[in-house]
Write a structure and sequence with these properties.
By secondary structure, chain A is α/β, with parallel strands linked by helices. Chain A contains nine helices and 19 strands. Classes of the chains: A alpha/beta, B mainly alpha.
């Protein structure tokens, strides 16, 4: 018996660009294109190697991380390994059952009951009826939907729906588990559940292929990491050096950044972030802020339909992807936004004392109900300097430790037991 | 996708590589996924009439309504000959195999696009989807046989021994739907024109088949020969013959069956070539 789980031997995938548009105008365009080609007038069809000559071998029980920028070829690689898309060249050998956590809820039908959907979804994911019978109670237990088993899932709350769908996928017990975190659109609790499952699977000695943009997660879960850039495997090493190499290649725009159409594919898409900028206290676009400087984040969002109850999320993260703070318009009892169709400008003023280092902004637009409309990570990058603006207090410590400096009030040393002044009245809302 | 799968003691090894040869069908794998086929067909049937007040009764209402309308228009007004049978019974014995074919074809042709989310998320033999859609049509057909039994009793027609051949003709109608459906479902992934043209195609095909009229109306000779190129002509004649006697299907049945198999094999080859890009294009 072989001991590898996956072996890729020169995997390559060529995409012909423009094919998608051709299908949209259907036959007419196809006929016209063929005519033009026959007359020798058409430009050659542009094509793109989404994946080029990728070789690697994953041993059984290994937790392999796959990192790279958007469009680097990570998802193409997973698609080929999941047999959804055929390689143009090269081959891969997959030893064992491959299951993926990006298939959550595939084939669920709203009109069918929970029980019926468990069987249907299980069969779609490759389980035999006997296997589903055996695991049925565990699945229902995990999802916590016993009482609603014979109710059509269209009457389920979205939380129940996702829990049930996840429960089926989580009980597939594949030999090789594939997780594409980028595609796992769900709430934080759900994502945490996914991560928990990965850890569990790994500890059972099964193989995991894990695609993620979160470098801390990659570092904590993976023993080995592949770095892919421009369709090529550029590094195959331990997690720390691959992550370091990734951060060097990662060119997040600074100051103001334009989000290209099609760059963001997450979420339901009724609204798309078009640009984001950091404004300094003078209101100018900036990629450097003085220490303790008040700043604003200006976002342009293009909306196709009115979204009555919108929650905008702005996250501050380190370059490694560690989230430092999350700010939403609904914080402190704030109200939801109504986004009218067209280009809308949203501005947020932030008063936080960030310690001097580089940060990136992640921006998300969500429905109040929880569904994500659009989410772009690492939209723009800015640096907090260790010098303060005019007349301000510079950052003194020699070493930067931590990420933020809270507002504090120090009391002079006194003999123990002396009475303290009363607690300050907080002006913060819950 | 060309993938060889061998089932070991507990493990299967899958080789993923560019496929070569359009004839490399993997029927063993199809058999492995038979449970999924049944589940998907069952889903089609379950979901189809959910949240409709009349529910499964629609399976009976549709042919019944068509029978009444055709009887009035073609039987009463146009006085079309009906091979000595009461016209309503004549038209019903044509309608049932026709609906098996027509509804299975319609479902099959749209099946891949309707299940796009499955195509882009999970691997399984793609043939399962059109096959499941066609099987669901068979369930409707089985239910509508109730109508047929009722009509036979009402008109006092007692089928002879040849009724034993009825399943054969029903399967032939289903085979015709699958053969044509394989082509159309795969074409539809790339060209949605199929979806638009399909109702029209089915409508024309109905009148090119001996549902409302007898084949005896078609002039013999070269026109009859061309007419018989339509495999459904033989299938419907044969189906009617198993129930009511009348003219037995002749040599053209062999031709029709051969033609159907040719369309089927061509469809399988086309489907195999097209399925490589389903997930990228759909």
């Amino acid at each position: 018996m072989t001991s590898f789980a996956v072996r890729a031997e020169g995997l390559s995938k060529l995409y012909k660009l423009g094919r998608k548009r051709e299908t949209q105008v259907a036959l007419r365009g196809r006929v016209r294109g063929a005519l033009r080609n026959a007359l020798g007038r058409g430009a050659p069809q542009p094509s793109l190697w989404a994946l080029k000559d990728v070789f690697f071998e994953v041993q059984e029980g290994e937790v392999l991380g796959i990192i790279g920028r958007n469009g680097a070829g990570k998802s193409t690689l997973l698609k080929i390994l999941s047999r959804l898309s055929e390689p143009t060249r090269g081959r891969a050998v997959v030893n064992g059952r491959l299951g993926s956590l990006l298939e959550v809820g595939t084939g669920f039908h709203g009109e069918l009951t929970g029980r019926e959907n468990v069987y249907l979804n299980g069969a779609i994911l490759g389980m035999r009826r006997g296997e589903i019978d055996r695991k049925f109670d565990q699945i229902v237990d995990f999802a916590g939907v016993e009482a609603f088993l014979d109710t059509a899932v269209k009457y389920y709350s979205s939380g129940m729906y996702v829990r049930l769908a996840f429960a089926v996928a989580a009980h597939l017990e594949p030999d090789i588990l594939v997780v594409d975190e980028v595609l796992a659109v769900g709430d934080i609790a759900f994502q945490r559940k996914c991560l928990g499952k990965i850890g569990e699977v790994a500890s059972e000695g099964r193989t995991v292929l894990f695609v993620s943009h979160s470098m801390p997660t990659i570092k904590s879960l993976c023993s080995r990491v592949l770095l892919i850039d421009g369709g090529r495997l550029v590094q195959d090493s331990d997690a720390n050096s691959a992550v370091a190499a990734y951060l060097r290649t990662d060119d997040v725009p600074r100051g103001e950044s334009i989000v290209r159409a099609g760059e963001s594919l997450l979420g339901t898409g009724e609204a798309r972030l078009r640009s984001a900028a950091v404004l300094d206290s003078a209101g100018k676009v900036a990629d450097q802020l003085h220490f303790t400087e008040l700043f604003r984040v200006k976002m342009l969002v293009e909306t196709t339909v009115t979204i009555p109850e919108t929650v905008v999320e702005v996250g501050i993260s380190t370059l490694e992807g560690q989230r430092i703070a999350t700010m939403m318009n609904t914080d402190r009892g704030g109200h939801v936004f109504e986004l009218a169709p067209g280009l809308q400008e949203i501005v947020l003023e932030v008063d936080v004392t960030l310690l001097p280092r580089d940060y990136v902004l992640d921006i998300g637009v969500h429905h109040y109900s929880g569904a994500t409309v659009d989410m772009v990570e690492k939209v723009t990058r800015f640096t907090v300097l260790n010098i303060a603006g005019e007349g301000g207090d510079h950052y003194r410590p020699y070493e930067v430790r931590g990420y933020v400096r809270p507002n504090t009030r120090w009391f002079d040393p006194k003999p123990s037991g002396a009475a303290l002044p009363p607690m300050s009245k907080t002006t913060r809302k819950p | 996708m060309s993938s060889r799968a061998t089932v070991g003691a507990s493990r299967r090894v899958v080789v993923i590589q560019p496929s070569r040869g359009a004839l490399a069908f993997n029927f063993g794998e199809l058999w492995e996924y038979r449970e999924l086929l049944i589940f998907l067909a069952w889903r089609e049937v379950r979901v189809r009439y959910k949240q409709s007040a009349l529910g499964i009764a629609w399976v009976l209402i549709q042919p019944l309504a068509a029978m009444v309308i055709f009887s009035v228009v073609f039987g009463r007004f146009a006085h079309l000959p009906s091979e000595g049978l009461p016209y309503p019974l004549f038209v019903l014995t044509g309608l049932l195999p026709w609906q098996l074919f027509g509804s299975s074809l319609t479902r099959t042709a749209g099946s891949l696009v309707a299940n796009a989310n499955l195509l882009t998320k999970v691997y399984f033999p793609r043939l399962i989807i059109p096959l499941a859609a066609a099987l669901a049509g068979l369930v409707d057909f089985a239910i509508s046989l109730i109508l047929l039994v009722g009509a036979l009793i009402y008109f006092g027609v007692r089928p002879g021994w040849q009724v034993l051949a009825l399943p054969f003709f029903a399967l032939l109608a289903l085979l015709a739907a699958i053969s044509v459906g394989l082509w159309l479902s795969a074409l539809n992934v790339r060209y949605r024109d199929v979806q638009v043209a399909l109702p029209f195609l089915v409508q024309i095909w109905l009148f090119a088949s001996p549902v409302t009229y007898s084949v005896s109306l078609v002039p013999s000779g070269i026109s009859r020969l061309i007419y018989n190129l339509n495999p459904m002509a033989s299938v419907i004649q044969g189906f009617r013959w198993t129930l009511t006697g009348g003219p037995a299907p002749g040599i053209q049945l062999l031709g029709a069956t051969a033609l159907l198999f040719a369309i089927l094999i061509g469809g399988l080859i086309y489907f195999r070539t097209a399925e490589k890009t389903f997930a990228d294009v759909v």
